[in-house]
């Protein structure tokens, strides 16, 4: 049997895609698919390596994971 899923079941991904749409897509026109892919890769790199989160004690997601895996 399949369970019925809701947005809250996958809150982290819902948050990511919501922010992605607002911060990258809206008002943006990409001339080619390659430019879109390049911009998407830049955004994902920013999301993982530069974005600071207060929930993660002021660290980026990569810094947070690295910090807690070394403890």
UniProtKB/TrEMBL annotation:
Occurrences of domain Integrase catalytic (ranges): 14-67
GO annotation terms (biological process): DNA integration
Official protein name in the record: IS3 family transposase
Organism listed in the record: Candidatus Borkfalkia faecipullorum
């Amino acid at each position: 049997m399949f369970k019925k899923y809701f947005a809250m079941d996958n809150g982290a991904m819902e948050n990511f895609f919501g922010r992605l749409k607002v911060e990258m897509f809206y008002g943006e026109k990409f001339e080619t698919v390659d430019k879109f892919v390049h911009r998407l890769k830049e955004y994902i790199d920013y999301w993982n390596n530069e974005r600071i989160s207060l929930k993660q004690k002021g660290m980026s997601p990569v810094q947070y994971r690295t910090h807690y895996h070394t403890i």
